[in-house]
């Protein structure tokens, strides 16, 4: 374990003036649902921590961090610039996340929050060593999109989630990553995962009772009016399907760099139109400076992570 100092002085680090400038894949329907689930849990005093496997530059993590309550822990696990443990995962990293560095993630995150989350830099397969069983109320699985890794991530998260906990699977139906679809629906048919709802990009489920969420979610969707939805029967249980085309994004956390003129190098191709102001009741971040650090975890050297992956392959029995 090492203390990580976030160095925001380096010229090359990003200085996003708003969340849409942070590179990533986190769209309106899922922003609305993350917000809804986290607020719903808060209203019903569902206790527990937050967890993200696969943070990339921090887009969804920054959003999640804004819903962290006092005393809760937010753990983010990513390889960042560490080597992957197998050839397929290395190829995936080189193709999709070649420019990723942990320092860029940290600079982005600290543009919106005063403290970093707990960072586990390493394979998602190791996350159970750093998060207590039954302690998590909301987990976002968005690390490797290869079957073997996703399958392992789902089984790990099953142990980490509390009874009322919600798991979100990214890219559960995308053409380029059939392994995520296979692992997700396998978890439903073989490992007790119960679907709550789906968007075009993410699957939301629980190992508890999905009706605890579905009734209230349907009421909220009906009251909003701008989010199309329907209910389908899947494997003998209701599944809410929704699409938020044209719906208003929820309020985003506010960047400490918001008043600064944007540097040309930071203009991102996927930047979206102007966003709403600070969320009601959420304080705007303090100006940069001071001790912007939090204890973070540096995980095992690659040689150890490779051994763990090999051991898992040998014992998976799939
Ligand atoms: C799709 S991106 C995450 C996107 C992010 N959640 C967002 O919304 O912008 C996937 C991330 O998973 C990480 N990753 C890939 N394989 C991993 C593994 N085996 N363990 C941990 N992280 C991994 C990559 O470094 C990358 O940052």
TrEMBL record:
Basic and acidic residues biased stretches: 246-273
GO biological processes: methylation
The keyword Lipid metabolism is annotated on this UniProt entry: no
EC number assigned by the record: 2.1.1.-
GO molecular function annotation: methyltransferase activity
Keywords: Methyltransferase, Transferase
Record region (Disordered): 244-295
InterPro entries, sorted: SAM-dependent_MTases_sf
Protein name in the entry: Class I SAM-dependent methyltransferase
SUPFAM superfamilies: S-adenosyl-L-methionine-dependent methyltransferases (SSF53335)
Recorded coiled-coil stretches: none
Organism the protein comes from: Streptomyces yunnanensis
Domain of life of the native organism: Bacteria
Compositional bias segments (type: Low complexity): 274-294
Highest classification ranks of the organism: Bacteria, Bacillati, Actinomycetota, Actinomycetes, Kitasatosporales
């Amino acid at each position: 374990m090492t203390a990580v100092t976030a160095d925001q002085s380096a010229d090359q680090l990003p200085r996003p003036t708003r969340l849409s400038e942070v590179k990533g894949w986190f769209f309106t329907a899922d922003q609305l649902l993350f917000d809804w689930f986290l607020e719903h849990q808060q209203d019903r005093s569902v206790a527990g921590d937050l967890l993200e496997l696969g943070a990339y530059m921090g887009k969804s993590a920054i959003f999640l961090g804004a819903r962290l309550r006092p005393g809760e822990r937010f753990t983010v696990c990513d390889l960042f610039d560490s080597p992957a443990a197998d050839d397929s995962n290395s190829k995936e990293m080189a193709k999709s996340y070649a420019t990723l560095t942990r320092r860029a993630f940290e600079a982005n995150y600290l543009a919106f929050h005063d403290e970093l989350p707990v960072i586990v830099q390493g394979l998602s397969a190791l996350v159970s060593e750093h998060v207590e069983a039954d302690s998590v109320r909301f987990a976002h699985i968005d690390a490797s999109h290869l079957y073997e890794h996703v399958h392992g991530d789902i089984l790990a998260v099953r142990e980490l989630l509390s009874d009322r906990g919600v798991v979100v699977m990214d890219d559960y139906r995308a053409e380029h990553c059939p392994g995520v679809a296979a692992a997700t629906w396998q978890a439903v048919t073989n490992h007790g995962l119960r679907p709550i709802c789906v968007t075009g990009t993410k699957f939301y489920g629980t190992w508890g009772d999905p009706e605890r969420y579905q009734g209230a979610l349907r009421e909220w969707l009906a009251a909003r009016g701008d989010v199309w939805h329907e209910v389908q029967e899947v494997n003998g249980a209701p599944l809410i399907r929704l699409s938020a085309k044209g719906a208003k994004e929820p309020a985003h956390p506010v960047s400490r760099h918001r008043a600064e003129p944007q540097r040309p190098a930071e203009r991102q191709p996927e930047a979206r139109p102007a966003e709403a102001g600070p969320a009601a009741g959420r304080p705007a971040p303090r100006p940069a400076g001071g001790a912007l650090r939090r204890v973070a975890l540096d995980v095992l050297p690659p040689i150890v992570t490779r051994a763990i992956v090999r051991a898992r392959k040998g014992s998976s029995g799939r």
